[in-house]
Amino acid sequence: MMRRYRAGDREACLAIFDGNVPDFFAASERVEFAAHLESAESFLVLENGGVLLACGGVSGLPSGWAVLDWGMVARAAQRQGLGRQLMLARLALARGMPGLRGIRLETSQKTCGFYEGFGFRVQAVVRDGFGPGLDHVDMALTF
What we know:
Layout: E1 2-4, H1 10-19, H2 30-39, E2 43-48, E3 51-60, E4 65-73, H3 82-95, E5 102-107, H4 112-116, E6 121-131, E7 134-142
Parallel strand pairs: 4-5
Antiparallel strand pairs: 1-2, 2-3, 3-4, 5-7, 6-7
């Protein structure tokens, strides 16, 4: 079941993050993610039987762009289509924002192909930008 994030989801979301370090996130990013959860407006969680399996959000910017925020799937639940479900829900939220020009995101080289499957294109790459072995990749989807 996909639903909006609630404050009581914080520890489960942090556990999902921790399970994806160091392959998809640098440990140093945890503080930023935890702070984001405190102010997240359009943040979703995907749960099954009361267990959170994925989370991620979308934020609108005054520039007319939306930004995908912190999308992740629990390590044990990866490669089961949950990331796709979460992505489709996030895209639907973004497309509901008035005057939207497109969507931007920051990711690593390890997930570029996933986003390219939804029409996103690489805009810039900074080698080791998130940490050793994790390139910082800027991507965009324009409407």
